[in-house]
Design a protein that fits this description.
This protein is mainly β. The protein has a 22-stranded antiparallel barrel. The longest helix has 22 residues, at 2-23. Residues 401-897 form the TonB-dependent receptor-like beta-barrel domain.
Length: 944
């Protein structure tokens, strides 16, 4: 805690020094005024710049601005997210000038968007496809969440992300979805350029198993101006991954404003830790315990510099998040039996410990890290501009696995061969930890200009993500064979992914009818993936005859079996047309051809339209095809362990684990080479603005996806002599692979209603109601059985359930909420503000891993004994803000104010002998309880 307590002092010293340097350059003549909307509401953060010059500033929390200028005539340009840009000529005399601004077009739904169109930016109610715009810079101070995944989870109903627990690397990188589809079926852009993915692939039993993420938490929320979410297939426009839609993150470009913020929060909650003892063993004690944990500190500092007529913004952020723990009390046997009797109680009493000593950690992982992002542009020549943006982040994470109880140590170390050695190090067993180091770097550079009406944009974007694993508080049992005091920490190796994308884009608007925009471009991309082996002790079996499992307990290290870093390239060409036939009728079309060096070519199209029925009511719709290339992680991820079994009286090394899709073993089992997923999407909806301040959008959609890639379960030879023979011949006992296995269909609708009202002159209230309902299904045949693309060898060998089980199916259909609704109220009066938000998460369902895929996830006739429905839950957030000074804002609040939890697990087997009170397989909103926070934000215009 010491470094955290020192951070505010360091920040204050830096701010004071920085301000002193900036104010020393101030001029004596000042232009000042206020920026407000048509209802008189102050627009904090509005940008005020001098056209054709490098000077600018932003409005403070009261909407006031000041700008130092030499006497003369100027054109001031005022912009604010969601409002129309205003340009005003101002004459500055010897005593300065006063100029107020009233901006038109209030309302989030009017926000001008960039994503989804290469034409002149349109307001979101005028776009032919649905686009959400989240003015993050305006709302981030009012909420308690600090990382981007969790912020978006509570703001955007179509976006779903919940933290996982005891899931190896997935504990440290939250899976996220759009419209209930995969984490890798949504494309992420920054400033309109493709963002690289993370190196990690989710291989444990969580939602989005077998998929890769884009690490949104690597991007500091305080560096973002706004987020645009295109909720429509867009592969024809942007390429691979854009099946569910596109998330475009727009970085800040403000100058002349120093922003510093600091927040701290913690969980204070009550949950039934002793639920299993209370319910199963009939204990009369109260099962609930009170917990305070998960302390989270966030600090940020940002400033925008004027560079000639350009700008450079720098934003840094540090986050320290402590772990949370909502484990249940373990009810199983802890110590080895004594003379055939369980002596747990007497042993614990003699050692002065109890069952709490043997708790696991079920909850948020610990995470500490920082990031620095930049955004730069500089005009060159008459019409040109050089630009660059990117950043670096580093995060260190810590999570735990399952406890190695003394009784399990005896079993795991070959019937006690090494048990005494382990007990000498860990008398009460041990809880092994997984430590991660995640580094992320990205930079994009480009040049744009205008020649004879054509807009040219040439750019190159590079991004790299490394994900390294370490193990601590553990042991490799077999290492005792060569070392009586073996190591307890291990370097377990890691994963690396990098991507380089080069683009050349052109666009021009022609005066054809009401306007024709023509755009075209070329793209060349290289993807690369590699595996780094861990140190020998992390994976090796030093005592082969003993039969002890190899490697470090909790996470045996990687062994690089794929050789050098694997690469591929992709080349693409596209054309995009947007024709306004009349003021009321817009038609767009896009075509894209893309060729991959590893699986061939794909051709995609998109057509969309918008019809203005009356001035306040628009109809819109689209039809498109899409694709997602198999990720490099899915093609080349491999993690196998060497085991030794007795064959013919001698020990034989065999492999078990995940093999690459192109391995000989995959071919022998009939697993085909990976190919792209393809999609067909349809959407139809309307937008309406029937009266002042009210806006409504509604969009229905259907997305059919063929050849979705999954990670199979482990194949074995238990049901087929032929399969056993194949595995034995390849030196394997079990094996799983990535493969194109299923077809799916997503159907749903989304609606957003917004109402802004100013009353009693100075009071304003903004209300937003947003709803998403999605039904994802694996496609079925005429008999209602799932269609599974499996080889005859596996089907005839009784391995279909291992290929794709009902639990795999349930992750797609019912493990995430089918419906999600949010209702928020934002009230402002003078220096005071309040935010009240309700987020409703629909029903989720856990389905046991039966070997028989299901016809209907909610058909009770097919339920297994361990299946469970988890009822819908509503989470309430509340925050109160006050401007202590014009430039200093204080916010206090609570997330999950009423301490709402998911339903507890009712089946003892799912509780794992009491350890898991809440399910770690299906998620609604996590299980941490009420979170209380306070935040300070300093906003200081420098007048430069």
């Amino acid at each position: 805690m010491k470094p955290v307590s020192q951070l505010p002092l360091r920040t204050l010293f830096f701010v004071s020094f920085f301000l002193a340097s900036l104010f020393s350059l101030a001029q004596n003549v000042t232009v000042r005024g206020a920026v407000k909307d048509a209802n008189g509401q102050a627009l904090s953060g509005a940008s005020v710049t001098v056209q054709g010059a490098s000077k600018g500033t932003v409005a403070d929390n009261s909407g006031n601005y000041s700008l130092s200028l030499a006497p003369g005539k100027y054109t001031l340009v005022v912009t604010y997210v969601g409002y129309l840009t205003q340009r005003t000529d101002v004459t500055v005399g010897q005593s300065g000038a006063v100029q107020d601004f009233i901006l038109a077009g209030a309302g989030e739904l009017n926000t001008v968007t960039v994503v989804g169109s290469r034409s002149v930016a349109r307001t979101r109610t005028e776009t032919p496809v649905p686009v959400d715009v989240i003015p993050l810079a305006q709302v981030v101070n009012e909420i308690g969440q600090v990382d981007l995944n969790q912020i978006m989870n509570y703001i955007a109903p179509s976006f779903q992300s919940a933290r996982q627990t005891i899931a190896d690397g997935t504990d440290h990188l939250d899976p996220a979805q759009l419209r209930g589809l995969g984490t890798d079926q949504v494309l992420v852009l920054i400033n309109g350029k493709r963002r690289h993915q993370a190196a990690l692939v989710n291989v444990n039993g969580t939602v989005n198993r077998g998929q890769t993420n884009t690490d949104l938490s690597a991007i500091p929320a305080t560096a973002i101006e706004r987020i645009e979410i295109l909720r429509d297939g867009a592969s024809a426009q942007y390429g691979s991954d854009a099946i569910a839609g596109v998330i475009n993150i727009v970085l800040k470009r403000r100058t002349g404003l120093l922003e510093a913020s600091s927040s701290y929060g913690f969980y204070d909650t009550k949950y039934p830790k002793n639920y299993a003892l209370y319910k199963i063993q009939g204990k009369s004690d109260d099962p609930n315990v009170r917990v305070t944990d998960g302390g989270t500190f966030q600090g940020s500092l940002g400033y925008g510099f004027n560079i000639g007529k350009g700008y450079l913004t720098l934003n840094g952020e540090y986050i320290s998040r402590e772990a949370t723990n909502r484990t249940g009390t373990y009810t199983g046997q802890i110590f080895p039996s004594v003379n055939g009797q369980n002596r747990d109680d007497s042993i614990m009493n003699g050692r002065g410990i109890n069952r709490n000593t043997f708790d696991i950690r079920a909850g948020n992982s610990q995470m500490k890290g920082g990031a620095l992002f930049y955004n730069f542009a500089l005009p060159v020549g008459k019409n040109g501009e050089v630009y660059a943006f990117g950043g670096y982040s580093k995060k260190d994470g810590n999570s735990a696995g399952l406890y190695r109880y003394p009784s399990s140590v005896v079993l795991a170390s070959n019937a006690g061969k090494y048990a005494s050695n382990v007990f000498a190090m860990y008398p009460n067993g041990f809880l092994p930890n997984i430590n991660t180091k995640i580094a992320d770097f990205s930079t994009a550079v480009g040049y744009r200009t205008k020649i004879k009406g054509w807009n040219f944009d040439i750019s190159n974007s590079f991004g790299q993500n490394t994900f390294d694993f370490g193990v601590s508080n553990s042991v490799n049992y077999s290492q005792f064979a060569v070392n009586s005091s073996p190591q307890t920490t291990f370097d377990a190796g890691g994963l690396k992914f990098w991507q380089n994308t080069s683009n050349a884009d052109v666009a021009k608007r022609y005066d054809v009818l009401r306007g024709l925009n023509v755009a075209a471009g070329l793209e060349y991309r290289i993807d690369a993936f590699g595996i780094r082996s861990g140190e020998e002790a992390s994976y090796k079996n030093y005592d082969v005859p003993s039969g002890v499992g190899p490697g470090a307990q909790v996470f045996p290290g990687f062994v690089n079996t794929i050789g050098d870093t694997k690469t591929r390239n992709a080349k693409a060409v596209y054309v995009d047309l947007e024709q306004d036939f009349t003021k009321a009728f817009l038609l767009t079309g896009a075509l894209r051809y893309e060729n991959y060096s590893d699986f061939g070519s794909t051709f995609n199209y998109k057509f969309s339209t918008r019809v203005k029925v009356v001035d306040w009511f628009n109809l819109r719709g689209s039809v498109s095809t899409g694709f997602r290339a198999p990720s490099m992680q899915q093609k080349y991820y491999a993690k196998t362990n060497t085991l030794f079994i007795t064959q013919g009286g001698s020990l034989t090394p065999v492999q078990a684990g995940t093999f690459t899709n192109d391995s000989p073993l995959a071919g022998l089992l009939g697993i085909p080479k990976l190919k792209q997923e393809t999609s067909q999407s349809y959407s139809f909806g309307f937008t309406a603005k029937p009266f002042s301040g009210f806006e409504l959008t509604f969009d229905a959609y259907q997305i059919d996806i063929k050849n979705r890639i999954i990670l199979t379960n482990n194949f074995n030879g238990n049901t087929s002599a032929q399969i056993k023979q194949i595995l034995d011949a390849q030196g394997a006992t079990t094996a799983n692979f990535f493969t194109n296995a299923i077809d799916t269909r997503a159907r749903g609708f989304e609606a957003v209603a917004s109402y802004n009202k100013t009353f009693l002159k100075k009071h304003s209230l903004r209300t937003v109601l947003a709803l998403n309902i999605t039904d994802n299904q694996v496609k079925k045949d005429a008999a209602g059985k799932p269609i599974i693309h499996a080889s005859d060898i596996l089907v005839n060998g009784g391995q279909l359930g291992n290929y794709f089980s009902r639990e795999d199916q349930s992750r797609i259909e019912v493990a995430n909420p089918k419906d999600k609704l949010s209702l928020s109220f934002e009230y402002k009066y003078s220096r005071f503000g309040a935010m009240l938000r309700f987020v409703h998460f629909g029903v989720v369902q856990y389905l046991d891993a039966s070997t028989t895929p299901i016809a209907n996830a909610f058909d009770n006739n097919t339920l297994e004994s361990l299946d469970q429905d988890f009822s819908a839950k509503t989470v309430t957030d509340l925050s109160l803000s006050y401007d202590v000074l014009k430039s200093l804002r204080l916010t206090i609040g609570a997330n999950n104010l009423f301490d709402v939890y998911p339903d507890v697990q009712t089946h003892s087997s799912n509780q794992s002998l009491g350890r898991f009170v809440y399910s770690r397989r299906v998620q609604q909103m996590g299980f941490n309880g009420a979170y209380y926070f306070a935040r300070l934000k300093l906003t200081l215009p420098t007048g430069k």
